Structure formats: structure tokens, C-alpha cells
Fold this sequence. Notes:
The protein is an alpha/beta fold. The chain has one helix and five strands.
Amino acid sequence: AYRMESVGDDIPRPQGGGGTDFRPFFTAVEKLAREEGIPDALCVYLTDGYGAFPDPAPALPTLWVVTAGGLDLSHFPFGEAVRLV
């Protein structure tokens, strides 16, 4: 587990609303990685986890950082998921 703390100004707590379409993000990152020749690209996505996941899963390694009250970590269909507390 990793603890994140603000340094300086207070950072508001993340809030989720659900309904995110994750697919365009992964399409854009995969395209950019291909075009720019970035073989070790990866994704870190801060989310509540409620939304439409790409199917099939992207080839990029993915870390889901899930806000408190977000989707259960076991429901992420690919990548690694951690809870932000």
C-alpha cells in the first residue's frame, strides 16, 4: 500500500459520478504509443470505476487508482486495481 499526501495547498478529495466511457482513453493511448514508438507505455487511471471498459482489454499495462466508495477492486476486468484512501 502506498500513501499519498499533499505537499502545500490542500487538494480536494476525489469524487466519482459514474458513467465514464474508458474506451476512448485506451484507444488514444495505444495509438499515441504506436505512433511515437513508446514500447513501454502504461496507463494510470484515477477513477471511481463505474463505466464502460474496453473489450478486449488493451495490451497496455494498467493501474486503476480507485476512489473511496468506488467499484469493488475485484470487478476490474484487467490491470491492477488499488484503493485510494
